[in-house]
Specification:
The complex is a heterodimer.
Chain A lengths: L9 E6 L3 H10 L8 E6 L7 H10 L3 E6 L10 H19 L6 E5 L5 H24 L1
Parallel strand pairs in A: 1-2, 1-3, 3-4
Helix pairs in contact in A: 1-4
Chain B lengths: L17 H4 L4 H21 L19 H9 L12 E2 L2 H4 L7 E2 L3 H8 L13 H5 L21 E3 L4 E2 L25 E3 H8 L20 E8 L15 H15 L4 E6 L9 H10 L3 E4 L2 E6 L5 E7 L2 E7 L1 E6 L1 E2 L2 H10 L24 E3 L9 H19 L25 E6 L11 H9 L4 E7 L5 H13 L4 E6 L2 H14 L7 E5 L1 H5 L6 H20 L8 E3 L4 E4 L3 H12 L4 E4 L14 E2 L10 E2 H14 L3 E4 L2 E9 L2 E8 L4 E7 L1 E4 L3 E3 L13 E3 H10 L1 H5 L3 E5 L16 H15 L4 E6 L8 H10 L3 E4 L7 E5 L2 E7 L7 E4 L3 E4 L3 E3 L3 H7 L26 E3 L9 H19 L3 E3 L5 E3 L9 H5 L5 E4 L4 E4 L9 H5 L5 E3 L4 H12 L1
Parallel strand pairs in B: 3-14, 5-12, 6-7, 6-12, 7-8, 15-16, 15-17, 17-18, 20-21, 20-28, 21-24, 28-39, 30-37, 31-32, 31-37, 32-33
Antiparallel strand pairs in B: 1-2, 4-13, 9-10, 10-11, 19-40, 22-23, 25-26, 26-27, 29-38, 34-35, 35-36, 41-44, 42-43
Helix pairs in contact in B: 7-8, 8-9, 11-24, 12-16, 13-14, 16-27, 17-18, 17-24, 19-21, 21-22
The chains are: A alpha/beta, B alpha/beta.
The structure holds FE2/S2 (inorganic) cluster.
The site of FE2/S2 (inorganic) cluster has 13 residues of chain A, from helix 3.
């Protein structure tokens, strides 16, 4: 965060069946979004271990996005519910550890929601950017 | 003896050289030898019943025309030289000796004379090409051969070709649409030519450039229906695909250059397919301009530009464009028609196969089937559906012989890489310009070479191509690679292909990783080449890092339950059930209603483009016949008033719980595949006084009136039909596809009953695709009036003096609108999806925004779901006509049969594992597993995984507090390695 041009870096864990496919759809529809995200494909949002979220933050990422199927749509029936519960606990932990918990997002994005995926990345990048800027100014 | 062929009077005996001519020149003797050899070959290869004396000789002589010779000289290929003058011994010396009097050439002279060769390229059989071709593709001895194959069925898929605009039509003796100037003005091109301009492998490498001067045009016009919907030129039908491809070309052209301003001149936008209207709307938002007008002529303007003349309501216009694209229609080629003739297949007047009602892939000859555009012009998903349907019909005939000629693909033994250090090979794909146009691919390759573990990296134009597979195999061998990373498209498309290549090279297929630099990089960061290149490098680094930890994986093999579950007892469901049952599999057919038949119960008659009367097919009779066949079939088990409550298991092994309302009982059915055919329903209009005045009815109501209260209907003096009621607006964004044909069909039927009835059809785009255009034309010929309206100026229906009054905009009327007082207003209400959400949740399959089921791939996998073992047919997919539903049902059924007939299947490879040393036996993972694949070993207090049941979701891994649970291919070190490289 040393200079004004620091581009936020986002690590995204996307479930194979919905959000990863939605991200592909954003591509096939040629929707443009900022190049700040690096996607890691997991089979299900329920497989996102809390350490997968902590490690990037410790390693220097500015944000972590977890993407899964909409409630009820998880390919493995209930993985996203597990993710949701885990996420709630994780947010508290982040708080306790002194991390800004807004830097970690959980979003339900289906295979047909390419536009929502692009929007999410746009929003998240903008939010992180303004956080970075104000951190520098402040 | 024949001097041409050198054949003697006795068949098979040839003669040449001195024996024939007496003492002669050596060169003539050699020539005779060649000629005789040639004749003998022809003679032998024909096993001549022909008299050998009459064998024509094929001499490889090339005759250059004067122009060609001049061209060769001009381009410097050859230089014009005088003949080298021959020298002779002078007569004085000659009389004193027996020396040869013609002097030989010196070496220089001989070379000079040889250089006069025009290089016409006659093969002298030097065979250099045979030695030069490393692929061994040149074979001088190849001759045409005829083979005979014994087959039980034939499927024809020869397709169509674009209409040749220069070829004269039979009736007019001029080219098609000469007024558009194709062939005269260089900047008038066909849509297929334009497609090539957009292509990375095209003549301009994907840059839109004008043929006349190579300039980049900004204003481009597309003209629709060139060689379609044009009776004057024997092309009476609609080519069905041009509206969408023109829109696609316009959109892609704008993607190539935002400066391009496309305009499409059209008559009707026929975006009748699933999600097509949304695409058109998006195109409009992206700056594609649509003008409803027929272009009357194109005239040359300044600088190679073109003046396009057309008419709007307010008069004729002329507009200048820099380039014009003609959206040409399609038709079967002359060869295809000749083929059909040889096979004895009946063709219709346009040269397509004669269609047979409700047997979508049948031809006039039993055992010969047809799929794709040779039957009727159509888009890709429909051809894919029909291909499966034709396969279903063919394999019905062949069911007893299934598998008898199949050969199993064999692979070399797998190399054991356990002891080897990771040696990674990286292949980065340009994907034409898809990736290469944004990401600087060579830089990614250079970067990859610097990554730890990488011993080899290269880039390919198309990594997925056949020859690149061979390359990858060779590179694996040469460099002793034990991991392969391909950076190209999403793993969802080509991962299996590359994995197969690894297997062929003796590597376990799981020693492979794919970096998605197309969908998730090049296509979404088109404006920023630097960032896209950097991102591609990161993605490659992440995958290379991950690959270091890859280990070989093996799959468990399990038995497939050979039964099928068909959900929905409408026409599609019944057809699917019968198709599967005929192939020898038991089928459970589950219907929510009390009776079978679905939406088709409301269709009274159907119309076939080839017949002159409308009442040609009695749908109800056919429906009853189908229901009877279903009920009687010993392999089809029907459950009516049955509701699915639960679907457990996975491909090959499903268990469904069904509630039977009649018996108030729950039963469990086990099966290996599922076909979803839950149908859709007719929508109820909410406009135009529907439900408030009983003179306002739907097309469906009209049909049953025609059948049941014929005399009443015959006496109606005037009828107004309104199209797109509740379709293609905010409430339902999609086109219901069948309403236009339904309106035309009913209008024709009304005219048949009483030619005096006045019928006005108010429509937005008349979507009479394919041969339905013939019906549309017939309706107009019979006096049905078609008037277009726009979404922002819908017609109005009111009641005045107890009479219905319809007001609609009409450009031809003096005050711009017409007022009608019809006896009946008939609304085309369209199709809406059933409430599919509960079933979609049970099956874990997605729905579209509109509430129809979402297939695995809109174009290429229209019958499958992304989830294995579940297939889709009928109106549950999207609105469609009855015969289209039948094709889809047959297709989905054969997809299911292909699975069910396999007997065995491999389980998921990426299953969970337990590190017994770390497992504390807490049992959390057992609770977490949604598949019951986990259990605690009571004695050892250690968790176990049932690999046949595990679906590889990874829930147990996250649940484990000790890190004892891991998932193959998603091991923690692998994810960590990716994270580190993602952040770096
Ligand atoms: S598969 Fe998408 S969240 Fe589970």
């Amino acid at each position: 965060m040393s200079d004004n041009n620091h581009e936020p870096r986002i690590v995204a864990f996307l479930c194979n069946w919905c959000t990863y496919t939605g991200a592909d759809l954003a591509g096939t529809s040629r929707l443009q979004y900022p190049p700040n995200v690096r996607i890691i494909r997991l089979m299900c949002s329920g497989a996102v271990d809390p350490v997968y979220v902590l490690k990037p933050l410790l390693d220097g990422a500015d944000g972590v996005l977890i993407g899964g199927c909409h409630p009820g749509d998880c390919h493995y029936q209930s993985g996203n519910y597990k993710a949701r519960r885990r996420f709630a606990v994780l947010q508290e932990t982040l708080d306790e550890l002194g991390f800004d918990k807004d830097r970690v997002w959980l979003r339900w994005i289906s295979a047909s929601e390419g536009a929502q995926f692009a929007d999410t990345i746009r929003e998240m990048t903008a939010m992180l950017k303004s956080k970075l800027d104000s951190a520098i100014v402040g | 003896m024949n001097p041409e062929t050198l054949a003697t009077g006795r068949p098979g005996l040839f003669a040449g050289g001195d024996a024939v001519t007496g003492v002669g020149f050596i060169i003539d003797a050699i020539a005779a030898g060649h000629r005789a050899a040639n004749s003998i070959q022809t003679y032998l290869s024909r096993r001549s019943t022909v008299n050998s004396q009459q064998l024509p000789i094929t001499n490889s002589v090339v005759k250059l025309s004067r122009d060609e010779i001049t061209a060769r000289v001009e381009t410097g290929k050859v230089t014009k030289r005088e003949r080298v003058e021959r020298k002779w011994i002078d007569a004085g010396t000659r009389v004193h000796s027996f020396e040869e009097f013609a002097l030989p050439m010196s070496e220089e002279e001989a070379v000079a004379e040889a250089q006069r060769c025009l290089e016409c390229g006659v093969c002298s059989e030097c065979l250099e090409c045979v030695y030069a071709c490393r692929a061994g593709a040149v074979n001088h001895a190849a001759i045409e051969a005829t083979r005979e194959l014994q087959v039980g069925a034939v499927i024809l898929t020869p397709g169509v070709e674009p209409i040749d605009l220069r070829a004269p039509s039979t009736s007019l003796r001029v080219g098609y649409r000469p007024e558009y100037g194709y062939g005269r003005y260089p900047n008038v091109v066909t849509s297929l030519e334009f497609e090539r301009f957009l292509s990375a492998t095209g003549p301009t490498q994907g840059v839109v450039a004008r043929p006349s001067d190579g300039a980049h045009p900004k204003k481009i016009a597309w003209i629709q229906c060139v060689g379609s919907r044009d009776c004057a030129r024997d092309q009476g039908y609609c080519s069905s695909i041009c509206c969408m491809y023109a829109t696609k070309e316009a959109v892609i052209a704008r993607e190539h250059s935002a400066e391009i301003a496309p305009t499409i001149f059209y008559l009707d936008i026929r975006a009748y397919g699933k999600e097509f209207d949304r695409y058109i709307e998006r195109a409009k938002n992206q700056g594609v301009r649509y003008i409803r007008s027929m272009v009357s002529a194109i005239e040359p303007g300044a600088n190679g530009n073109l003046n396009v003349r057309y008419a709007l309501d307010d008069g004729p216009k002329t507009e200048e464009f820099e380039m014009v694209v003609l959206s040409v229609g399609v038709k079967p080629s002359a060869e295809t028609r000749a083929l059909a003739q040889r096979l004895g297949i009946a063709l219709n007047e346009y040269g397509f196969t004669e269609s047979i009602s409700f047997a979508p892939t049948a031809t006039s000859r039993p055992g010969i089937f047809v799929a794709g555009t040779f039957r009727e012009p159509k888009d890709i998903p429909e051809t894919v559906i029909e291909a499966s349907a034709a396969a279903a019909c063919a394999s019905q005939l062949l069911a007893s012989a299934r598998g008898t000629l199949a050969r199993v693909k064999t692979y070399p033994p797998e190399r054991d890489v356990a002891e080897e250090e990771p040696r990674v090979g990286v292949f980065v794909c340009h994907c034409g310009i898809n990736i290469g146009g944004v990401v600087r691919v060579p830089e990614v390759v250079e970067f990859a070479k610097t990554l730890p573990g990488v011993v080899y990296a290269e880039h390919n134009l198309y990594t997925c191509s056949q020859d690149t597979q061979a390359r990858i195999k060779a590179r694996i061998e040469e460099n002793h690679l034990n991991r392969v990373v391909v950076a190209s498209c999403t793993p969802r498309t080509h991962e299996p292909l590359f994995q197969d290549t690894l297997r062929e090279a003796g590597l376990n297929p799981h020693l492979f990783e794919l970096a998605n630099i197309r969908e998730q990089d090049a296509w979404v960061h088109r404006g920023d080449r630097d960032a896209a290149t950097r991102k591609a490098q990161d993605l490659v680094a992440m995958m290379v890092a991950r690959a270091q930890h890859d280990s070989p994986l093996y799959r468990l093999v399990f038995d497939i339950n050979p039964r099928a579950l068909v959900i929905g007892g409408g026409f599609a469901g019944m057809t699917a059930a019968l198709t599967i049952a005929e192939q020898g599999h038991d089928v459970f057919l589950v219907e929510r209603d009390a009776e079978l038949g679905g939406h088709a119960r409301h269709i009274q008659f159907a119309v076939n483009g080839e017949q002159s009367t409308v009442n040609c097919v009695d749908v109800q009779a056919m429906l009853h016949d189908t229901i009877a066949r279903v009920m009687e079939h010993p392999r089809v088990h029907v459950y009516t008033r049955a509701e699915i409550n639960d679907v457990a298991g996975y491909v090959g092994r499903f268990v469904s719980r069904i509630h039977l309302a009649d018996e108030d009982a729950n039963i469990a059915l086990d099966h290996g595949a599922i076909v979803v055919a839950t149908g859709a329903r007719a929508a109820t209009p909410r406009e135009y006084l529907y439900g408030m005045d009983n003179r306002v009815i739907t097309q469906q109501d009209l049909e049953s009136l025609i059948i049941n209260r014929k005399s009443e209907i015959e006496n109606q003096k005037s009828i107004v039909m309104i199209q797109c009621v509740g379709s293609r607006d905010e409430s339902r964004a999609y086109c219901s596809r069948i309403c236009c044909q339904q309106a035309i069909k009913n209008a024709l039927k009304l005219k048949e009953l009483n030619p005096q009835t006045q019928i006005v059809v108010l429509y937005r785009d008349l979507r009479a695709y394919g041969f339905k255009e013939d019906l549309y034309r017939r309706a107009r010929e019979q006096g049905v009036l078609f008037l277009p309206y726009e979404l922002d100026a819908k017609p109005n229906v009111a009641i005045a003096n107890d009479k219905l009054r319809v007001t609609a905009r009409a450009a031809f009327a003096p005050n711009g609108k017409i007022e009608l007082e019809p006896d009946l207003v008939v609304l085309s209400a369209g199709i809406e999806p059933n409430d599919n959400a509960p079933l979609a949740q049970l099956l874990k399959v997605p729905l579209t925004q509109d509430g129809f089921f979402l297939e695995a791939h809109a174009k290429l996998r229209p019958l499958d779901f992304a989830a294995d073992g579940i297939f889709l047919a009928g109106l549950a997919h999207s609105p469609r006509a009855l015969d289209e539903s039948i094709a889809q049902a047959q297709g989905a059924a054969i997809r299911a049969v292909a699975l069910l007939s396999q007997k065995q299947r491999e389980a998921v490879a990426t299953v969970a594992t337990v590190n017994e040393r770390l497992c504390a036996g807490c049992g959390l993972c057992v609770e977490m597993c949604p598949y019951g694949a986990r259990a605690l070993d009571a004695d050892a207090h250690i968790a176990q995984v049932n690999a046949a049941l595990c679906q590889g979701c990874g829930a147990c891994v996250t649940a484990c507090p000790n890190g004892a649970s891991q998932q193959r291919a998603f091991e923690m070190p692998q994810v960590f390695a990716m994270i580190e490289n993602a952040v770096a």
